[in-house]
User: Fold these one by one.
Assistant:
Number 1:
Amino acid sequence: MKNPVYEFLKDLDELKWFWTYAMRPLKQNEVFFISTSARNKRLDGEERAFFQVGRSEMWHKEIITEDDFSRFLRGVRRCEANKLAYLTQNGMPYPAGVLVLYVNIAPADAYAALFAQMDHLLAAQRELADSLLKNSPEGIRQAFHAIRHSHTTGQSVFARSFSDGEWLDIDSDIEHFETAGGRAALRNIRDFLCEETGRGNYMQIQTTGGFHWLIRQSTLAGIGRKYKTDPAGIIVSRMNAECKAAGITINEIIKNKNRMIPLPGTVQYGRHVVTVLNKEDFSEDKKLHAWPDYREYQEE
């Protein structure tokens, strides 16, 4: 095996920039959540049959409990595990072409996650007790399976326990935008967002499938008052109109409810480094953290 570990981080400065301008500081009840996923959308039929990768498989989760860049970076590094630690259904290491490292743009509410996990454990306990009373071997087997895997459920509830986030995410899954018309449409979208939210209040993040547009939540009320309707709907409608007029292929443009985006600075599907395109819009007063001066050992 030429490279024995999964690789995600490709641009440390990009990650530092995203930490500085996009990741708001944690409150005492909050944590950061990142996860690795395998998605077969970039594989052809023969590759899917060979590797046996599902449509979307979350295979590792990291919860970062401290508001510290060095701890966040270590969480990213823990995702870069030995390839033999995580295998496909046919026992093969995941190919680079399916890998994504996601970050939740809203911190997770650890207090809410605590109660969600307690509910899950009580449900497993009830299932075991009911199965014992009914003398149901299959029910007992399923209950103990849930109990044995309760640690993974404990991590998963963090992914669903959102706290108040800094950003709204609009996921634009589009193709064929690298034309004169396409570039003009994207400029129009940026001009619209700048006019409606103000400079430095949105991020254009390029991924392999198009763009994630992060819109600062504090600007949405003004858009809603101006247009007297849902601000996310206004933004989605404008993006659809601009892309359609430019002949861009639109797979979907939607408000992203799961609040997960590919983490800037990491490589997506083995070939694209996720990047924020409009860094120049962000002045010093837009910082959410101080710029990290942390250096990894291997950089020395």
Number 2:
Amino acid sequence: MEETVEETINVLYSSIDNFLFQDINFSIVSSNMPKWILDEGISPEGVLTKDAYEICRRKVTHPIFGLYMYYYELWTIVAAIQDRLQAVSMFLTQFYDNIPCIAKFTNNQYTSGSRQCGEFETSLHVLLNSIFISYASVFDLLSKVAREEYVFDKYDFTSYKEMKSNSVLYNFNMRDIAQSLKGEGMLFSAPLVVRKFCTFRNEYVHNGPWDMRACVYYMAVNGEPADVIIYSPDMDDYGNFIKSGSRNKFYSQSNRINIQLPDMIIELTEIIRNRITELSNLYQAKTVRTVSSKYTAECINAIMQYYKSL
């Protein structure tokens, strides 16, 4: 049975843990690590000011502290991927609780229709665009993990300050990522469905909704109710809105986005699953060492010395 995306993410968590801490007894070292390394600057559980946090950071010198700081920061990115995917599921459920995903008729069978705009119709457009935004956020977050996997060996955790992927955002021509992540069916091979999601997201975030009136069309055939439709703009073969000058909202293709979206989601889910699985494989391939009791003891000693310095 094929893994769900959630199960695939859980494998990624384990693969990262096993890779980062292959030299130490993870449970022993983790149980002694100062709590501020986990919470401060990341979680409401932290209560230190920025200045107090920086004082704590200056007191640590062993690379194990930097590695754990990095680990929790990478962990928050993977957790954010889960959060966005859960948001997509929630938005999809709410969206399709209120509008059908299957059409009973083709566009050329409609004989009439009414356009309605109001609070309900606006809420449908907001939910729809929230799906595009959440998925585009997943693209950005996966890009960060991909960069971190590729550049990990360049870190010096004795003087760790920040992740090398902090400014990374998804694009179709990313560098400094593993070549296997650019293969067919992967996010960075720029599949058409990914380009479409990016187009919808960018238009909504940077230029506004594609239908400023947030309309829903209630179609009829020979006077009888037929389908409920949200139309989306014409797209070219590269997933961009077709434009002329500043106009890019043409509707000659009669794209019924609420009918097309489920197939798009299925295709995109497979791409994301493949991407996460390959990231797990890359981390697993680099997990080649065994736990060192000597290095574990060295790390514990460094932690104890930090506590004595307080």
